[in-house]
Design brief:
Radius of gyration: 22 Å
CATH architecture: Beta Barrel
Strand content: over 45%
CATH topology: Porin
Number of domains: 1
Largest sheet: 8 strands, antiparallel, barrel
CATH class: Mainly Beta
Structural class: mainly beta
């Protein structure tokens, strides 16, 4: 006599279950911060004029919905438009104040995996994490006689994700999600006058709207 023990996880509707690969286009809106701001070569104290900003972006991803475990995974390529990051070398007597206006754009490649709460409805909540690579490109203008600086910084990126997927059609769907991402360091590089500015962590709170097609 042979005994067979089987285990079955809950599944999404059959229409979504049959198409496990998908491609998605994403719109990204985020509230972002520069943390751990420091400098080298300043005459006076650094003053953080603007270290928070609203940032927009877009991306595309290829994903896979695993059949036998309630997980979906994605590889995403995205680009964020400029973060206005402004500081100054602050002279308390206002005799020799120097300002630095930095615009930061970010390109990233992120791998994510999320645990799905699959059920009999068209809506699938999920939560998970991500890791990847980011390049923070800083363009900085100094307002007192030095040339502009362009500096790229490559980083390890990581974050957390949560959201809900809506399968409105056999192949089409929408994903409304939130994620926290640490995109790593930002550096201006060193000006000809000897100064440089660094931020240890560029962190974002993202709201994402994705439209995807299963194939």
């Amino acid at each position: 006599m042979v005994f067979v023990l089987t285990w079955q996880v809950s599944t999404a509707p059959v229409s979504a279950e049959d198409q496990r690969y998908y491609g998605a286009f994403k719109l990204i809106g985020s509230f972002a911060d520069m943390d751990g701001v420091s400098q080298t070569g300043f005459t006076n104290q650094i003053q953080e004029r603007n270290t928070s900003d609203i940032v927009g972006g877009f991306g595309a991803s290829i994903g896979y919905r695993w059949k036998n475990i309630p997980v979906h995974s994605e590889i995403e390529v995205s680009h964020r438009t400029r973060f206005d990051f402004d500081t100054r070398d602050d002279d308390p007597a206002f005799l020799n104040t120097v300002g630095y206006e930095t615009n930061v754009a970010t390109t990233s490649v992120l791998f994510s995996a999320a645990l799905d709460w699959r059920n009999d409805s068209d809506f699938t909540p999920y939560a998970g994490g991500l890791i990847g690579w980011s390049r923070n490109s800083a363009e900085t203008e100094r307002n007192a006689g030095a040339s502009a600086r362009d500096q790229d910084t490559d980083n390890f990126a990581w974050g957390l994700i949560a959201g809900v997927i809506w399968d409105w059609d056999e192949r089409w769907g929408m994903d409304l999600g939130y994620r926290y991402v640490d995109l790593g360091q930002v550096e201006t590089g060193t000006f000809s006058t000897g100064e440089s500015i660094q931020a240890e962590d560029y962190t974002t709170h993202d709201l994402l709207l994705s439209v995807f097609y299963r194939f």
